[in-house]
From TrEMBL, chain A:
Protein location: Cell membrane
Pfam families recorded: BPD_transp_1 (PF00528)
UniProt cross-references to InterPro entries, sorted A to Z: ABC_transporter_permease, MetI-like, MetI-like_sf
Protein name: ABC transporter permease subunit
Regions that span the bilayer: 20-39, 85-109, 121-141, 179-197, 218-239, 277-302
Protein species of origin: Neglectibacter timonensis
Domain ABC transmembrane type-1: 81-298
Record key words, sorted: Cell membrane, Membrane, Transmembrane, Transmembrane helix, Transport
Keyword Ligase annotated: no
UniProtKB/TrEMBL annotation, chain B:
Residue span(s) of domain ABC transmembrane type-1: 74-280
Coarse class of the protein's main subcellular location: membrane
Locations listed in the record: Cell membrane
Family under the similarity heading: Belongs to the binding-protein-dependent transport system permease family.
Keyword Membrane attached: yes
Coiled-coil ranges from the UniProt annotation: none
Bilayer topology: Multi-pass membrane protein
Transmembrane segments: 73-97, 109-129, 141-159, 186-210, 261-280
Protein name as it appears in the record: Carbohydrate ABC transporter permease
Keyword Cell membrane: yes
Lineage of producing organism: Bacteria, Bacillati, Bacillota, Clostridia, Eubacteriales
PANTHER family: ABC TRANSPORTER PERMEASE PROTEIN MG189-RELATED-RELATED, POLYGALACTURONAN_RHAMNOGALACTURONAN TRANSPORT SYSTEM PERMEASE PROTEIN YTCP
Amino acid sequence: MASMGKTKKLKKKRDWKHFIPYYLMGLPMVIYLFINNYMPLYGLLFAFKDVNMRKGVMGSPWVGLKNFEFLFRTDDAFIMTRNTVLYNLAFLVLGPVLGITVAICLNSIKGGRSSKIYQTSILLPHLMSMVVVSYIVYAFLDQNSGIFNALLTAFGGEGVNWYADAGKWPFILIFVNQWYSIGFSSIIYLSSICGISQEYYEAAELDGASKWQQITQITLPLLKGTIIMMTIMGLGRMFRSDFGLFYQVPMNTGALYSTTQTIDTYVFRGLMQLGNFGMSAAAGFYQSIVGFILVVTANTVIKKISAEDALF
Amino acid sequence: MVNSKSARRMNGVSHTVLFLLTFLALVPFLILISSSFSEDTQIIKYGYSMFPRGFSMDAYGYILTNFSVIGRAYGVTIAVTVIGTAASLIITNLGAYMLSQDDLPGVKVLMFLVVFTMLFSGGLVPTYYIYTQVFHLKDTLWCLIVPNLLLNAFNIILIRNYYRFSIPKAIVESARIDGAGEFTTFVRIVFPLSLPITATVGLLTAIMFWNDWQNGLYYLTGTEWYSIQQVLRVMSSQITFLSNGTDSTQGVNRDIPTTTIRMAIAVVAIAPILIAYPFFQKYFVKGITLGAVKE
């Protein structure tokens, strides 16, 4: 008995040593995550301080909830929240509709060179930076040389000053977003469709079902899981926005803020351009906390539906 | 009969929809490239077009004569992409290998620390504070590489799952029986086996670094470390940037083909991706699919 206990102990000791190299391998990752993701958490306290970057988090004096009071007293808080949420809702509805349509089309002509050419081309915008996208948008919307105004005048209409007309930007930004991401989302849905057993379709063919019936009776019901999952994950990201889309594509134009300002652009402008650190920090805090609640809620829901798809 | 008719109609609809979308996806790039080869005065007079208006290489000539600015920015972009991708892959793979050891004490806690970064983030203000006031990365090459871009929890989990499920335990065991240490086993056996997934993740990472312009926007005050994306961003508002190399507004020189130069620089910035795309598109698609299904 005694000797057995000894060998067990020895083994444990060797095991512990044998783990050291693994910890060493993981060390760079842990250090980076600490610096990049965990140290900034303590900077969240800025939201409750009279922010002074030089004095740092501890050196800046406490102001309680003043920053939040100022922030929510302005229209900015309402506008940026409304814009962020409404754009996300639009993306959340249009993304699956267009993505699934393209995926079904790609699937119906599957194989062959043409489907590959289509897929490769539709995905191309996703390889570009938002700066390049903003150049492309400018080529269409520039007041003097833009293609849209050329077309408008050619058909007897009048040119529009696109970069001064905030009312048009929801449509422009939603279109640009879908143009940018449709290739990406269609690939995700296509991979789900490819996972559907061919036998269902063969059986449907035998029963004389048309292609349209096959889509509505087989493909869409079987995609339900993927659609629900993508939607819930999207709801979890409801408070986030693609900074490039809302800052660079409208060329940071002040006249368009009412329809292009999102929480991310507000935080950036407050921090970098207006020197409005306190309100910027408060808006960032607001985004982090609400965003966290949304993600955790979304994950809880996913866990209920299908545990293996949950993040944690 | 009914079926084949329905199938033909479906085929027709699919081709129409996809052709239209392909057109919408490609035309903007055609406009970009055509404009860069156009005559500046023609563009100003008649506007952008799908086909070159006149034909002129002036824009590219201008870039060449002012090559110091563009050349340097290009060098910065290449350095950021190479260093960033290499560092990211090394750290990600090593970390993922540690996390793939199910019997490692504390591995669940470490895993949670990785997942948590996907749920909660401090946002721009605290991150900006840490990198500028604590680590003083402002106006260095590192400020383009390190903040936010180096690791991504999604990639770590992706590669960890590959290590856990796709690498035969027997191979690792046999290496250990032959007396190889953990590092040797990783470098010689495990890492080479992970090349398919590492290549896919590496491709997505490299594109991300090549395209990144936000770190430059946040952390650069001078122009010394401008990447090509940075030059593009500044050029959209200040065309004189190229000739005096500074981020300042001065009188616009009328002889500069401003409109076409912008487009030419955009073409130069996207050219490597456009040229390489046909060769890597298979892996790009695979990377997106992998990311979507999480395993």
